[in-house]
Amino acid sequence: MPRIAVFGAGSWGTAFAMVLADAGCEVALWGRRPELVDTINATSVNPDYLPDVTLPSGITATADASEAAKGAAVAVLTVTAQSLRANLTAWAPLIAGDTVLVSLMKGVELGTAKLMSEVIADVTGAGPERIAVISGPNLAGEIVRRQPAASVVACGDMAVAQRLQAACHTPYFRPYTSTDVIGCELGGAVKNVIALAVGIADGVGLGDNTKAALITRGLAETTRLAHAMGANPQTLAGLAGMGDLVATCSSPLSRNHTFGANLGRGLTVSETAAVTQQTAEGVSSCESVLDLARRHGVDMPITETVVSIVHGGKSPQDAIKELMSRSAKPELR
């Protein structure tokens, strides 16, 4: 099994490092804070993100990016979406020219409206055969308890996707392969926005009918955008689409759902951010997702509603009324 560098020692980066180590890989886990890295190496515990989990012996943490990248056949990128470009610009000279670059991030870059795979290509010049995405219903808090989960490994080169599949296949983590990178990325990015909407509905006190409608119509929005961008609409009916959407919209472990619920209860965005310990990608990405939709001429009313609440200051109650008062239309359109 290959040596793999994981850039990012947050909850998902650490959890995925555990999956890789359990699959037999040698894993170098990069973290930006030396004190956290030292603690992980001394105790096999990441106290800041997964304090109740003992990590496998196959993981070595480091704060030196060059040390992490040295000899790595695969570099897994799991920083926040909006920090990827700056971080990868610093790391790119350290990464070998044949290293496969894997995105675990679920967001769209502000300003450029680029997917994470596109940012990776921009910064590194890597071709599609070296860029992959792993996405699915993968809540870190359940995976570190080694509860059964599945995901999608997508790469334009199926042989590369299959090699990555083997590198993260364990008795509890079941990866499937795909060549639809765009579809997998969109499923992961837009579901965070829909999860904010569902969380807001929960916080306001609305019921399961409302949440089911948001999830279903949210999937319709995502599928329309995916189709317009050349993705396979069937991808959105799978693990990277519907699967991830259901998990993120329904679980108390979901950062985006929790953020939305706090907004629905009346907290401001700044107050909610202050009580949220980790990044809720949908908060920043909702604007870039809407930007992406407009560039492709795709109507995304739920995304637009979330933006109006999170960044426009509109009250959840008023935004919901406006969403429900839209003109009637056929469902399959």
Topology overview:
Blueprint (H helix, E strand, L loop, with lengths): L2 E5 L3 H12 L3 E5 L3 H10 L15 E4 L2 H5 L4 E4 L6 H8 L8 E4 L12 H9 L6 E5 L4 H4 L5 E7 L2 H10 L5 E6 L2 H24 L3 H21 L10 H12 L4 H10 L4 H7 L5 H15 L5 H10 L5 H9 L9
Parallel strand pairs: 1-2, 1-4, 2-3, 4-5, 5-6, 7-8
Antiparallel strand pairs: 6-7
Helix pairs in contact: 4-5, 8-9, 8-10, 8-11, 8-13, 8-14, 9-10, 13-14, 14-15
Structural features, described:
- With 333 residues, the chain is of the alpha/beta class.
- The protein has two domains: 3-179, Rossmann fold (3-Layer(aba) Sandwich); 183-324, Orthogonal Bundle (N-(1-d-carboxylethyl)-l-norvaline Dehydrogenase, domain 2), CATH 1.10.1040.
- Helix content is 50%, strand content 12%.
- The chain is built from 15 helices and eight strands.
- It has helices at residues 11-22, 34-43, 65-69, 84-91, 116-124, 140-143, 158-167, 181-204, 208-228, 239-250, 255-264, 269-275, 281-295, 301-310, 316-324; strands spanning 3-7, 26-30, 59-62, 74-77, 100-103, 131-135, 149-155, 173-178.
- An eight-stranded mixed sheet has the order 3-2-1-4-5-6-7-8, with helices on both faces.
- β2 (26-30), α2 (34-43) and β3 (59-62) form a beta-alpha-beta unit.
- The termini are far apart.
- 53% of the residues are buried.
- The model has no long low-confidence stretch (mean pLDDT 95).
